[in-house]
Specification:
By secondary structure, this protein is an alpha/beta fold. It folds into 2 domains: 125 residues, Rossmann fold (3-Layer(aba) Sandwich), CATH 3.40.50; 181 residues, NAD(P)-binding Rossmann-like Domain (Rossmann fold), CATH 3.40.50.720. Helices cover 33% and strands 16% of the residues. The chain is built from 12 helices and 13 strands. Strands 8-7-6-9-10-11-12 form a 7-stranded parallel β-sheet, with helices on both faces. Strands 2-1-3-4-5-13 form a 6-stranded mixed β-sheet. Helix 1 runs parallel beside helix 12 and helix 5 packs across helix 7. Bound molecules: (2R)-2,3-dihydroxypropanoic acid (DGY). (2R)-2,3-dihydroxypropanoic acid binds next to loops.
């Protein structure tokens, strides 16, 4: 029987499947685990199940010699030192596919909320400010015929692009390489990020957070967007320079922004909080009951596979020489 350390309870009954075969420690809900607290929590465990805010640094791999797999309850694995895992012989797994539609739907919820000023309209009605229909009340931005720019045409970016067809938008994307036609939904590949930005009436961010994409969307790039553009971020907060976004919004260059993720999450830049042209969500990308339950099942399948000496279903990192 192996030992599995789980940093927080997961929705659904998946953890019970781990408990049938292994000794499982589940930490009660609490702040994210980082530094020495994470090392102590893992201790002699063979497997770690963690959340996206927990940090799994190189010291965890150095000081927890029994650890064979880090199974992250997220698709993004920027919170794990992937190179240290690889060279230390530890698998890292994530939860792709099962959260794609939920996250793409949420990106669209933000696009529509900003374009049609849903938050402002809701606030107006609740505050008693709705005094009757007016020709110019809360006019928004039409999407038909406009260009949706996607940064990062992976699974989620492509699912957001697919939904844009129904809204009559043109779709352009930037990524490391063009996608095969059947995965691009008629979207045009734009090799230069700056050229994509200059055309994107709506820009939606879907790239993973890496050293190369940290603050990829800075002030210079934000100012390349067409006047009245909408920016949506459901990827990772650090991909966007939040301070710069506040300045660009203040200048009136954008229609608004929809954010699900933040640079210093869960802190939100105070410059955003008072603005009515931004819609702010608490990292809800994958937050449907269906997606979160499926993510938990996949995490458990990955841990069970590695503890049975098999490769996991959805590896994010394959170790050089897996620990036995
Ligand atoms: C992920 O899985 O990386 C998402 O951000 C969770 O909502």
């Amino acid at each position: 029987m192996a030992e599995v350390a789980v940093t927080a309870p997961l929705p659904g009954g998946a953890i019970a499947r781990l408990q049938e075969r292994h000794s499982v420690r589940v930490r009660p809900p609490g702040p994210a685990l980082i530094g020495r607290d994470m090392v102590e929590f893992v201790g002699q465990a063979d497997a770690l199940v963690c959340l996206l805010a927990d940090r799994v640094a190189a010291e965890v791999f150095a000081l927890c010699p029994r650890l064979k797999v880090v199974a992250s309850y997220a698709v993004g694995v920027n919170n794990v030192d992937l190179e240290a895992a690889r060279t230390s012989g530890v698998w890292v797994t994530n939860t792709p596919d099962v959260l794609t539609d939920a996250t793409a739907d949420l990106a669209w919820a933000l696009i529509l909320a900003v374009a049609r000023r849903i938050g402002e309209g809701d606030g107006l009605v609740r505050s008693g400010g709705f005094t009757g229909w007016k020709p110019d009340l809360l006019l928004g931005t039409g999407l038909q015929g406009k260009t949706l720019g996607i940064v990062g045409m992976g699974r989620i970016g492509a699912a957001v692009a697919r939904r844009a067809i129904g809204f009559g938008m043109k779709i352009a994307y930037h990524g490391r390489a063009p996608k095969p036609a059947d995965e691009a939904f008629g979207a045009e590949f734009v090799a230069e990020l700056d050229s994509l930005l200059a055309r994107a009436d709506v820009l939606s961010l879907h790239c993973p957070l890496t050293p190369q994409t940290r603050r990829l969307i800075d002030e210079r790039r934000l100012r390349l967007l067409p006047h009245g553009a909408i920016l949506v971020n459901t990827s990772r907060g650090e991909v966007l320079d939040e301070e710069a976004l506040v300045r660009v919004l203040e200048s009136g260059a954008l229609a608004g922004a929809g954010l699900d993720v933040y640079e210093r999450e869960p802190e939100v830049n105070p410059g955003l909080l008072g603005r009515m042209d931004v819609v702010l969500l608490p990292h809800l990308g994958s937050a449907t009951r269906e997606a979160r339950a499926a993510m938990a099942e996949l995490v458990v399948d990955n841990v069970l596979a590695v503890l049975a000496g098999k490769p996991p279903l959805t590896p994010a990192v394959k170790p050089l020489v897996p620990r036995s």
